[in-house]
Amino acid sequence: LSNIAISVTDKNAMTEVQLAVTEALMAKHRVEEADFSVISQKDILGTLTTVIDTFTTFLASIASISLLVGGIGIMNMMLTTVTERTKEIGLRKAIGAKKRDISLQFLVEAMALTFIGGFIGVVLGSGIAFAISSLGIVQASVSFSSVFLAFGVSAGIGIVFGYYPAQRAAKLNPIEALRYE
Protein backbone atom coordinates (compact mmCIF):
# COMPACT_ATOMS: atom_id res chain seq x y z
CA LEU A 1 0.00 0.00 0.00
CA SER A 2 1.14 3.49 -0.70
CA ASN A 3 -1.88 5.42 0.56
CA ILE A 4 -4.70 4.92 3.06
CA ALA A 5 -7.63 7.33 3.40
CA ILE A 6 -9.59 7.43 6.64
CA SER A 7 -12.60 9.63 7.34
CA VAL A 8 -14.12 10.56 10.69
CA THR A 9 -17.70 11.44 11.50
CA ASP A 10 -16.77 14.07 14.11
CA LYS A 11 -14.05 16.59 13.29
CA ASN A 12 -13.22 16.89 16.99
CA ALA A 13 -12.11 13.23 16.99
CA MET A 14 -9.62 13.80 14.16
CA THR A 15 -6.60 14.21 16.46
CA GLU A 16 -7.47 11.07 18.42
CA VAL A 17 -7.95 9.04 15.24
CA GLN A 18 -4.67 10.37 13.82
CA LEU A 19 -2.81 9.26 17.00
CA ALA A 20 -4.51 5.84 16.96
CA VAL A 21 -3.64 5.31 13.30
CA THR A 22 -0.03 6.33 13.93
CA GLU A 23 0.27 3.91 16.88
CA ALA A 24 -1.37 1.06 14.93
CA LEU A 25 0.91 1.55 11.92
CA MET A 26 4.03 1.76 14.10
CA ALA A 27 3.03 -1.50 15.80
CA LYS A 28 2.30 -3.13 12.44
CA HIS A 29 5.63 -1.94 10.97
CA ARG A 30 7.48 -2.88 14.18
CA VAL A 31 9.50 0.37 14.23
CA GLU A 32 10.42 2.93 16.92
CA GLU A 33 10.33 5.89 14.53
CA ALA A 34 7.62 6.23 11.91
CA ASP A 35 8.62 5.24 8.38
CA PHE A 36 5.39 6.75 7.09
CA SER A 37 3.49 10.00 7.39
CA VAL A 38 -0.03 10.70 8.57
CA ILE A 39 -1.51 13.88 7.14
CA SER A 40 -4.86 15.24 8.25
CA GLN A 41 -7.17 17.78 6.66
CA LYS A 42 -6.19 20.12 9.50
CA ASP A 43 -2.52 19.93 8.43
CA ILE A 44 -3.43 20.57 4.80
CA LEU A 45 -5.63 23.55 5.75
CA GLY A 46 -2.82 24.93 7.92
CA THR A 47 -0.39 24.77 5.03
CA LEU A 48 -2.95 26.27 2.65
CA THR A 49 -3.63 29.11 5.09
CA THR A 50 0.09 29.85 5.34
CA VAL A 51 0.42 29.94 1.54
CA ILE A 52 -2.62 32.22 1.20
CA ASP A 53 -1.34 34.56 3.92
CA THR A 54 2.05 34.78 2.21
CA PHE A 55 0.40 35.44 -1.15
CA THR A 56 -1.82 38.13 0.41
CA THR A 57 1.20 39.86 1.96
CA PHE A 58 3.01 39.71 -1.38
CA LEU A 59 0.06 41.23 -3.24
CA ALA A 60 -0.38 43.92 -0.57
CA SER A 61 3.31 44.84 -0.99
CA ILE A 62 2.93 45.12 -4.75
CA ALA A 63 -0.23 47.22 -4.34
CA SER A 64 1.53 49.55 -1.88
CA ILE A 65 4.44 50.06 -4.25
CA SER A 66 2.00 50.68 -7.12
CA LEU A 67 0.12 53.27 -5.07
CA LEU A 68 3.37 55.01 -4.12
CA VAL A 69 4.55 55.12 -7.74
CA GLY A 70 1.12 56.33 -8.90
CA GLY A 71 1.09 58.99 -6.19
CA ILE A 72 4.52 60.24 -7.21
CA GLY A 73 3.29 60.37 -10.82
CA ILE A 74 0.28 62.45 -9.73
CA MET A 75 2.55 64.78 -7.77
CA ASN A 76 4.89 65.26 -10.74
CA MET A 77 1.95 65.90 -13.05
CA MET A 78 0.48 68.44 -10.67
CA LEU A 79 3.86 70.19 -10.18
CA THR A 80 4.14 70.45 -13.97
CA THR A 81 0.61 71.85 -14.09
CA VAL A 82 1.48 74.46 -11.46
CA THR A 83 4.55 75.49 -13.46
CA GLU A 84 2.58 75.70 -16.73
CA ARG A 85 -0.21 77.72 -15.13
CA THR A 86 1.92 80.11 -13.11
CA LYS A 87 0.60 83.16 -14.97
CA GLU A 88 -3.00 82.01 -14.45
CA ILE A 89 -2.34 81.55 -10.73
CA GLY A 90 -0.75 84.99 -10.55
CA LEU A 91 -3.73 86.53 -12.34
CA ARG A 92 -6.22 84.82 -10.04
CA LYS A 93 -4.30 85.98 -6.97
CA ALA A 94 -4.02 89.51 -8.37
CA ILE A 95 -7.81 89.77 -8.73
CA GLY A 96 -8.41 88.52 -5.19
CA ALA A 97 -8.17 84.73 -5.02
CA LYS A 98 -6.99 83.57 -1.62
CA LYS A 99 -4.36 80.91 -0.92
CA ARG A 100 -7.14 78.58 0.18
CA ASP A 101 -8.92 78.99 -3.19
CA ILE A 102 -5.79 78.22 -5.21
CA SER A 103 -4.88 75.28 -2.97
CA LEU A 104 -8.40 73.87 -3.15
CA GLN A 105 -8.41 74.14 -6.95
CA PHE A 106 -5.25 72.05 -7.30
CA LEU A 107 -6.35 69.53 -4.66
CA VAL A 108 -9.64 69.02 -6.50
CA GLU A 109 -7.76 68.55 -9.78
CA ALA A 110 -5.46 65.96 -8.18
CA MET A 111 -8.46 64.15 -6.69
CA ALA A 112 -10.23 64.23 -10.06
CA LEU A 113 -7.21 62.61 -11.72
CA THR A 114 -7.01 59.87 -9.10
CA PHE A 115 -10.79 59.37 -9.16
CA ILE A 116 -10.64 58.81 -12.91
CA GLY A 117 -7.81 56.32 -12.36
CA GLY A 118 -9.87 54.64 -9.63
CA PHE A 119 -12.88 54.41 -11.94
CA ILE A 120 -10.79 52.83 -14.69
CA GLY A 121 -9.34 50.40 -12.11
CA VAL A 122 -12.80 49.42 -10.85
CA VAL A 123 -14.07 48.88 -14.41
CA LEU A 124 -11.03 46.77 -15.33
CA GLY A 125 -11.19 44.82 -12.06
CA SER A 126 -14.90 44.13 -12.49
CA GLY A 127 -14.31 43.04 -16.08
CA ILE A 128 -11.53 40.68 -15.06
CA ALA A 129 -13.67 39.25 -12.22
CA PHE A 130 -16.54 38.71 -14.67
CA ALA A 131 -14.21 37.05 -17.21
CA ILE A 132 -12.73 34.71 -14.59
CA SER A 133 -16.22 33.77 -13.37
CA SER A 134 -17.44 33.23 -16.94
CA LEU A 135 -14.56 30.89 -17.70
CA GLY A 136 -15.39 28.88 -14.59
CA ILE A 137 -11.88 29.16 -13.13
CA VAL A 138 -12.99 30.66 -9.82
CA GLN A 139 -16.18 32.39 -8.74
CA ALA A 140 -15.15 36.03 -8.38
CA SER A 141 -17.35 38.97 -7.55
CA VAL A 142 -16.91 42.66 -6.84
CA SER A 143 -18.62 43.92 -3.71
CA PHE A 144 -19.93 47.43 -3.14
CA SER A 145 -17.57 47.81 -0.17
CA SER A 146 -14.51 47.05 -2.33
CA VAL A 147 -15.63 49.64 -4.91
CA PHE A 148 -16.19 52.17 -2.12
CA LEU A 149 -12.75 51.35 -0.70
CA ALA A 150 -11.14 51.76 -4.14
CA PHE A 151 -12.62 55.22 -4.59
CA GLY A 152 -11.68 56.15 -1.02
CA VAL A 153 -8.07 55.11 -1.60
CA SER A 154 -8.06 57.01 -4.91
CA ALA A 155 -9.30 60.17 -3.23
CA GLY A 156 -6.78 59.71 -0.41
CA ILE A 157 -3.90 59.34 -2.85
CA GLY A 158 -5.07 62.49 -4.65
CA ILE A 159 -5.16 64.46 -1.40
CA VAL A 160 -1.86 63.16 -0.03
CA PHE A 161 0.16 63.54 -3.22
CA GLY A 162 -1.67 66.64 -4.46
CA TYR A 163 -1.11 68.56 -1.22
CA TYR A 164 2.47 69.70 -1.94
CA PRO A 165 1.76 70.99 -5.48
CA ALA A 166 -1.40 72.72 -4.20
CA GLN A 167 0.55 74.43 -1.42
CA ARG A 168 3.28 75.42 -3.85
CA ALA A 169 0.70 77.02 -6.14
CA ALA A 170 -0.97 78.80 -3.23
CA LYS A 171 2.34 80.29 -2.02
CA LEU A 172 3.25 81.85 -5.36
CA ASN A 173 3.80 85.59 -5.23
CA PRO A 174 1.27 87.16 -7.64
CA ILE A 175 3.72 89.75 -8.99
CA GLU A 176 6.43 87.18 -9.69
CA ALA A 177 3.83 84.77 -11.11
CA LEU A 178 2.59 87.39 -13.59
CA ARG A 179 6.17 88.06 -14.72
CA TYR A 180 6.88 84.34 -15.20
CA GLU A 181 7.79 83.38 -18.77
Q: What are the defining features of this structure?
A:
181 residues; rod-shaped; single chain; 0% strand; mainly alpha
The class by helix and strand makeup works out as: mainly alpha
- What is the element string, with H for helices and E for strands? HHHHHH
Largest sheet: none
Gross geometry = rod-shaped
- State the distance separating the first and last CA atoms: 86 Å
> Which percent range fits the helix content?
over 70%
Quote the beta fraction: under 5%
Question: How many β strands by DSSP?
Answer: 0
The pLDDT mean sits at 89
Low-confidence stretches: none
Radius of gyration: 30 Å
Query: Count the helices. How many?
Result: 6
Q: Gist?
A:
The chain has 181 residues and is mainly alpha-helical.
Task: Tell me what you see in this structure.
With 181 residues, the chain is mainly alpha-helical. The protein contains 6 helices and no strands. It has helices at residues 14-29, 41-84, 86-94, 99-135, 144-170, 174-179. α2 runs antiparallel to α4. The mean pLDDT is 89.
